């Protein structure tokens, strides 16, 4: 295998594999995903996941944005992430995070 070659698919028991780029392969314990972290943090803080917003751009963010009450993909993010998101925000350079904060306030009727 050469640098830049497409990485092979892996099936390792007890793990989840995700690609954040064509040449990046992440192998995580099944319980150590961004979505698991989001749910555990929300539970520890007593916040319903329906009141949590998450923003992502690559496939390693998919379970996190689907676990959140407001799952947001950034403009220009991976097509699979944009398709799974509740909302597609502006590009990062155009203020995506600020837009997500504003949306979270609107959806939760915070002032």
TrEMBL record:
<protein>
    <submittedName>
        <fullName>Uncharacterized protein</fullName>
    </submittedName>
</protein>
<dbReference type="InterPro" id="IPR023214">
    <property type="entry name" value="HAD_sf"/>
</dbReference>
<dbReference type="Pfam" id="PF08282">
    <property type="entry name" value="Hydrolase_3"/>
</dbReference>
<dbReference type="InterPro" id="IPR036412">
    <property type="entry name" value="HAD-like_sf"/>
</dbReference>
């Amino acid at each position: 295998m050469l640098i830049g070659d497409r990485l092979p698919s892996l099936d390792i028991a007890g793990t989840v594999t995700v690609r954040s780029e064509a040449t990046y392969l992440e192998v995580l314990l099944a319980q150590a995903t961004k979505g698991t972290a989001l749910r555990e943090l929300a539970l520890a803080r007593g916040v319903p996941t329906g009141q949590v917003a998450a923003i992502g751009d690559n496939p390693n963010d998919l379970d996190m944005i689907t676990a959140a009450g407001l799952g947001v993909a950034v403009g220009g993010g991976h097509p699979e992430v944009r398709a799974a998101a509740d909302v597609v925000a502006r590009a990062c350079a155009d203020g995506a995070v600020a837009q997500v904060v504003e949306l979270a306030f609107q959806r939760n009727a915070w002032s």
